[in-house]
Amino acid sequence: MRDVDEELRLRKYDDQDEFALAWYQDEETLMLVDGCNQPYDRTRLKKMYHYLQERGEVYFIELKDGEEYRPIGDVTFWQNDMPIVVGDKTLRGKGIGRRVVSALIKRAKALGYQELYVNEIYHYNIGSQKMFESVGFRAFEVTENAKRYKLNLI
User: Fold this and answer.
1) Average pLDDT for residues 20-39, to the nearest whole number?
2) pTM of the model
3) Average pLDDT of every residue of the chain
4) pLDDT of residue 107
């Protein structure tokens, strides 16, 4: 577990991901994340999480709800990319992504990283672009469909 603040924590991925399938079957979420609306099945979901786990630290974002925490999204902490999904659509635009990414930036600094990257944010995913820019990331490359971002930590 990694505490983000008094309401949010990150729980390390542990193969218990059944609840996340609904996030990756939602068309709106898929467009923001993958640029398509091809729903995931259990096999594809596991494959995605295992792929990310080979590259970085995969966490479920959990929100305190009374005395319990409930998963609302996921994030991967990886120097070359930081994919983040707030799967609970009712919680998007409420600063959760910014709080999570800010906590991971602190972790990167503590580990001595000199920079962090976000590989790809689609041009139409304005919310994600604004969130990463609000914590200091800057676009350094523009592709046909997306922007790539970088944050200098030194």
Assistant:
1) 93
2) 0.95
3) 96
4) 96
**HEC readout, the chain:** CEECCCCEEEEECCCCCHHHHHHHHCHHHHHHHHCCCCCCCHHHHHHHHHHHHHHCEEEEEEEEECCEEEEEEEEEEECCECCEEECCHHHCCCCHHHHHHHHHHHHHHHCCCCEEEEEEEECCCHHHHHHHHHCCCEEEEECCCEEEEEEECC
Instruction: Tell me how far CA of residue 131 lies from CA of 96, 98, 105, 121, 128, in angstroms.
Output: 9, 6, 13, 11, 5
Least Cα distance to 34 among 26, 42, 54 occurs for: 26
Cα gap 94→100, rounded to integer Å: 12
Tokens of 21: 């399938």
Confidence band (pLDDT; 50, 70, 90) for 36?
confident
